[in-house]
Amino acid sequence: AAVWTTEEEGALLDFLASHLSQAGDGNFKKATWNAAAAHMAHNHPPVQGGKSSYHSFFFALLTIIQLKKSYYAVADLKSVASGFAYDDKHGAMISLDNADLWDRYVKAHKDAKPFRNSGFPHFASVELLLPSHGRGRFI
């Protein structure tokens, strides 16, 4: 499976943010996803000899679904209830002192695992695409 870089994910989020008016009923239509895939293929072509990972809207949609999961995992980490101090650059900043607590937390919150000591650079961009009631515009 193809994996997008942080820069590519950001470009996709920027594209969708610039097309929010096309999400009239709260969801982007297939035409917007196809346009996003075409935009990504044009502006972020595959490396020489590589296959384009933007050949269909399905991959763009799957990427957004994963980014949304990451957003909610980080939102939970940012809440006081998580018990962790979260920093946008360094994640939950887990050390040996709180590694056991982190391991227990991740068992119940599997999507938080990547943010042990890494931040989520797309938090604000994903939040922009979410209406205030928490239901994603893009899915």
TrEMBL record:
Superkingdom in the source lineage: Eukaryota
Protein name: Myb-like domain-containing protein
Species in which this protein is naturally found: Pisolithus tinctorius Marx 270
